[in-house]
Design a protein that fits this description.
alpha/beta; 5-stranded parallel beta sheet; ligase; acetate-CoA ligase activity; Acetyl-coenzyme A synthetase; binds ligand 6R9; 20 helices; 7-stranded mixed beta sheet
Length: 649
């Protein structure tokens, strides 16, 4: 590590927006929440736990005696599916819509809480008939369909942890996860719709399971009706098995620490980590944060998390959080440009969406397509916007505010990880001022800090490593089958403190700016800089829609900055772009941040959640063979970029 261990602050962002008075006047969360949590943190969480229905009340809020293995709400018993569905029907809300499903091709379904109770009960009965027992793991590899939610909740209902595998992953990714998790039942569909074409989900599952005879049942939802191979001794149609089941199922209540799901997270290197979440703390965490951060008013809001259920964001903010709060959500199957680039805004207008939550990658894509597209739609129903998944560049934040949020909607930039289970750092929309690009501060009940190498808090204006200093309810409990790796990955850098693996800085007001993964930090001539800030400087240029920056080995400076940019549509014919952008970065940040090369590309390598996989670009910049691409959302993209890089040099 260089003599200068903190990350240099590069950006100078001084825009700040106070919460609009009208919003603040009606907000769920008030400043009092911070005081309550500061005065008695565990008492605060005991209060939040009342958002959930417990069959048996818990004895203690937290048992941290076996740290870092936490137990929250010990002795409590509950059922996650009961909390998401039955209790709302029992309270007379059965006719409320749980999901407006919008298929890519325009087919729609409206699922009320009543419908959800019936479908989840039938699916639970079906799983029992197929031999699934409490504690057995079930893999779900599906498009974004109502059945995906039914399947997850059916698993939760019978205490069988699910592991949802993103529908874009390869057969190898499925096989790794199925093996690691010891799965015997897989739920999939014949296919799904993506950009107007069908993708072959069942065929991918067939390939993945070629050498895994332990999987005795593959349950197949019919979505597209496409041709598929059929294994008589293993495959069963969802409609054959589920439709005939009884519409009632008596839920069993499980211990608060009963596993709810395992979600695999690729990490930058090595075998994917099976991040395990349990029931009680997770449900409390998602219900509370969904209420506080999204200001949810379940009687009137139409809530839309435009993310995939195969990402933790979908688990917590399409399924468990919104349903725990009896919310009406939109569930959209497809891509933002099918059949046209206004599809999201058409959906907002059609359903009167009031709260939209999505990733910076989407916002930057919309920026690239141009402001005229959203301008064609009535977006006046929107009252709150959220961002998740990556640092959001200030220019993308401003564009989101102006062209989607009509200059009035507060924007919550929410920082959290698969490991965290729910949002940990975010503005509270009626309380906290917001700044373009800043996640702001830890939520009430959460204790975040930024440490230097030695484990001391850094001063305002400085950068370091983001940590969470005390356990929180939705935290992962372990890595599936690998307690050592759990301890080493998260709890060994600073004893007793959770190491997030992200770089962050405090600004002069003490607000938190997340700078991205520490593996992505650059070191040029001993100066440590974040890729996020250089990328933001590039995106701030009127011609740039997206940018990715990596540090490539350099004989004189240690590392040199290489940048990859996607231009906005309006900038496509411009000559001399590269020179202009280099000058622009030099002027915006300083000579130290000047890229050695800038390559114009048509796409960037991204994960299912839109995160740029910089290590692949680094392989390219350092002229190595391209590493593992199994978790790319689109596997072909690296070939295209390679060609564009060759052509440019
Ligand atoms: C929810 C999710 C976690 C990593 C995390 C960080 C990045 C997520 C962010 C953000 C800056 C935000 N990240 N939200 N960085 N600002 N608002 O994304 O989970 O897929 O596990 O990724 O994503 O680097 O460490 P996951």
């Amino acid at each position: 590590m260089a003599e200068n261990p903190t990350i240099r602050e590069l950006s100078h962002e001084d825009r700040s927006f106070d919460p609009p008075g009208e919003f603040a006047a009606q907000a769920n969360a008030t400043a009092k929440l911070y005081d309550q949590a500061d005065a008695d943190r565990l008492g605060f969480w005991a209060d939040q736990a009342q958002r959930i229905s417990w069959d048996t009340a818990f004895d203690d809020v937290l048992d941290w005696s076996d740290a870092p293995f936490a137990k929250w709400f010990t002795g409590g018993k509950l059922n996650a599916a009961y909390n998401c569905v039955d209790r709302h029907v029992e309270a007379g809300m059965g006719d409320r819509v749980a999901y407006y499903f919008e298929g890519e091709g325009g087919d729609t379904r409206t699922i009320t809480y009543h419908d959800l109770l019936r479908e989840v009960s039938k699916a639970a009965n079906a799983l029992i008939e197929l031999g699934v027992k409490t504690g057995d793991r079930v893999a779900i590899y599906m498009p974004m369909l109502p059945e995906t939610v039914f399947a997850m909740l059916a698993c939760a209902r019978i205490g069988a942890p699910h592991t949802v595998i993103f529908g874009g992953f390869s057969d190898k990714a499925i096989a790794d996860r199925v093996r690691d998790c010891g799965v015997e039942v897989v739920i999939t569909s014949d296919g799904g719709y993506r950009r107007g074409k069908t993708n072959a989900l069942k065929a991918t599952v067939d390939k993945a399971l070629e050498d895994i005879p332990e999987v005795h049942t593959v349950l197949v939802v019919k979505r597209t009706g496409q041709e598929i191979d059929w294994h008589n001794d293993r495959d069963q149609w969802w409609h054959d098995v589920v439709d005939k089941q009884s519409e009632t199922h008596e839920p069993e209540f499980f211990d608060a620490e009963h596993p709810l799901y395992i979600m695999y997270s690729s990490g930058t290197t090595g075998k994917p980590k099976g991040i395990m979440h349990t029931t009680g703390g997770y449900m409390v965490g998602v219900a509370y944060t969904h209420w506080a951060v999204f200001d949810i008013k379940p009687e009137t809001d139409i809530y839309w998390t435009a993310a995939d259920i195969g990402w933790v964001t979908g688990h917590s903010y399409i399924v468990y959080g919104p349903l725990a709060n009896a919310t009406t959500s939109v569930l959209y199957e497809g891509t933002p440009d099918t059949p046209h680039r206004g599809r999201w805004w058409e959906i907002v207008q059609k359903y009167g969406v009031t709260i939209l939550y999505c990733a910076p990658t989407s916002i930057r894509t919309f920026m690239r397509w141009g402001r005229d597209i959203p301008a064609e739609y009535d977006l006046s129903s929107l009252r709150l916007l959220g961002s998740v998944g990556e640092p959001i560049n200030p220019e993308a934040w401003m564009w989101y505010r102006e062209h989607i949020g009509q200059n009035t909607c507060p924007i919550v930039d929410t920082w959290w990880q698969t490991e965290n289970g729910h949002i940990l750092i975010s503005a509270l929309p009626g309380v906290t001022a917001t700044k373009p690009g800043a996640a702001m501060r830890a939520l009430p009940g959460i204790t975040a800090d930024i440490y230097d190498e030695a484990g001391n808090s850094v001063e305002p204006g400085n950068g370091g490593y983001l940590v969470i200093t005390e356990p929180w309810p939705g935290m992962l409990r372990t890595l599936w089958g690998d307690e050592e790796r759990y301890k080493n990955t998260y709890w060994s850098q600073y004893p007793g403190v959770y190491f997030a693996g992200d770089g962050a800085k405090y600004d002069q007001d003490g607000d938190i700016w997340v700078l991205g993964r520490v593996d992505d930090v650059l070191n040029v001539s001993g100066h440590r800089m974040s890729t996020a800030e250089i990328e933001s400087a590039l995106v701030a240029h009127a011609m740039v829609a997206e940018a990715a920056v990596v540090g490539a080995q350099d004989e004189t400076t240690g590392q040199a900055i290489e940048a990859f940019v996607i231009l906005r549509e309006s900038a496509k014919e411009h000559n001399h772009v590269v020179g202009m952008l280099r000058d622009h970065v030099r002027a915006a940040i300083g000579p130290i941040a000047t890229p050695r090369s800038i390559t114009v590309v048509s796409d960037l390598p991204k994960t299912r959640s839109g995160k740029i996989m910089r290590r692949l670009l680094k392989d390219l910049a350092e002229d190595r063979e391209i590493g593992d691409t199994t978790t790319l959302a689109d596997a072909s993209v690296m070939d295209t970029i390679q060609q564009q890089v060759r052509a440019a040099r």
